Amino acid sequence: MTQTWDQNELRARFCHALSEMYKTEVPLYGDLIDVVWEADAKALHNSQDAGANIINPDDVLPSRHRVERHGAIRLGTAYELSTMRRMFAVMGMYPVGYYDLSLAGFPMHATAFRPSTQDALSQNPFRVFTTVLRMELLTEKTQELAKRALAQRHIFTPKLLEILDMVDKKGTLTPAECTEFIKNGLETFRWHSKATVTLDEYMLLKAEHPLIADIVSFPSSHINHLTPRSIDIDLVQQLMLDHGMPAKERIEGPPKRQCPILLRQTSFKALEETVFFRDASATFVKGSHTARFGEVEQRGYALTRKGRQLYDRILDRVNAEAEELKLKGNDYEQLLKSHFKLFPDSLLELRQQNLAYFCYQLTPTGERVAKDDLATDFGSPAVYLQALLDKGILKYEPLTYEDFLPLSAGGIFNSNLGDVSQSRQLIMSAEPDLDGFQRSLGTHIADEFHLYAQMQQESLLHSI
Ligand code: OOG
Ligand code: NI
């Protein structure tokens, strides 16, 4: 597609419009943004007081920092997913990573639509965690009801579909069409308090799983949370509690470390909202639904497959032990911390043991060295690289993790559902279905490890 519009700019504008809409829909989300701002200002202040230069003030300047990093939606059908894929592509967001949520007991799987190059990520990193219902994991009765309800809804406006067709055909968008795209795109994510099902139907869906009810019962695929990032998520958690916000019990992901890895996230719990259900006489019955919340994330280093396997192994062990000993709250956090001592916590070890991905750059010394001098044969690439680092010709910094974690996502889903039994055998024994997901999507999902490895490789090729 030869673009006549700037995808990065369109994504930034869409993200901003979505944030404004969500703040009016869920005012507590606006309060959360203020808390994040307060926490980051404090963290910056503390680091400056300590004379440390750990935090780059540039990172917390309002314009760059206060953009949302991600949001999440939940879809019901292959048509909805493939159309969403077309819509996100217009904003330079592509499916990366496959998340099997049956691991966490949900009849769903997911991908993240996100910018896939470092340049696009640095211009605006907004991504959308997109979950899709797996019909085959529902009981027959629920399947029938879910299919019927989903078949009659239209989550995209006719104008949006027209714009998508035009982009496919002509590959162009005028500034006016970009504005129309944003206006119509927002409609897909807007909350509607009038359900498309009756209260009885809603109860049936909810009894099988509250997420099925959330996905199936409404006329749009409402955005269910937005997520700014913080430079001190522990402080945000504390401040949420201090301000009396209904904070989730714990921060998901790895414990606080010297070298942060992957992703840590917390949220305020979803609010109970009034919903009007249809009834036979075409009037509406008042009820309620719990779905929408606000979240905060703090991102660390991207791990290699080897690093990720170590992370998963440690976490599995922690969870098995915690279950056996029935550890919760602070005891769980202590256990997590102590097991994570196994995960190296210095840049040097992370690099030498090939646990994380890095971006390499020539140092000022390196810049002065002639290319020919770099080409000396040091043996294997790893030895050669080490020699360039030892000589102070190259420097490196970790790549940031841009993706999600299925178990952390499960924790986020869970704390926003209330008490749900998740022991349904059908779901827990399900196999991942990447092929099925890609078929519905109409394209391939990019492998996140491949993208990081490519970025690392490109940085090396660029430098030497
Ligand atoms: C998605 C939950 C996953 C995250 O940050 O891990 C997620 C949802 O609640 O629909 O957004
Ligand atoms: Ni999230």
UniProtKB/TrEMBL annotation:
Pfam families from the UniProt entry: HGLS
CDD domains given in the database record: VOC_YdcJ_like
Cofactors (names): Fe(2+)
Keyword Hydrolase annotated: no
InterPro entries in the cross-refs: HGLS, YdcJ_bac-like
Family: Belongs to the 2-oxoadipate dioxygenase/decarboxylase family.
Protein name: 2-oxoadipate dioxygenase/decarboxylase
